[in-house]
Write a structure and sequence with these properties.
Blueprint lengths: L1 E8 L5 E4 L6 E7 L7 E5 L9 E3 L4 E6 L5 E6 L4 E8 L1
Antiparallel strand pairs: 1-8, 2-7, 3-6, 3-8, 4-5, 4-7
Length: about 90
C-alpha cells in the first residue's frame, strides 16, 4: 500500500487534486480554513460552485475513488487550502 499526501491552494477554476490510479483510492480531504463561508467544492473535471458538493470550513470528506477516476476541486473564495490524504493498494 502507498500513501499520497499534499496540501493544495485552490482558486476559482477547477484543478486536479487526486490523479487517476489503476486501483481504488481511499481519499480523505480537509478544508484547512476556519473562516466561515469559505467552501471547497469537489467533483469531476466540470466541478463548479453550482453543481457539486462542498466541504465546510474545518470539515473532512472521505470516500473511495474508483480505479481510473481523478478528483478536481476549486474554492470560494479563491486561495483556500485543501489537505489531501490518499491510500492506494
Amino acid at each position: 500500500m502507498s500513501v499520497y499526501h499534499n496540501n493544495v491552494t485552490l482558486g476559482t477554476a477547477a484543478v486536479e487534486i487526486v490523479p487517476a490510479w489503476s486501483t481504488p483510492q481511499y481519499v480523505m480531504l480537509h478544508n484547512m480554513t476556519k473562516s466561515s463561508n469559505a467552501y471547497i467544492f469537489v467533483g469531476g473535471s466540470a466541478v463548479s460552485t453550482a453543481n457539486s458538493i462542498h466541504i465546510d470550513p474545518g470539515d473532512n470528506l472521505d470516500f473511495q475513488l474508483p480505479p481510473g477516476d481523478s478528483l478536481y476541486a476549486l474554492s470560494n473564495p479563491s486561495g483556500l487550502e485543501v489537505g489531501i490524504l490518499v491510500t492506494r493498494r
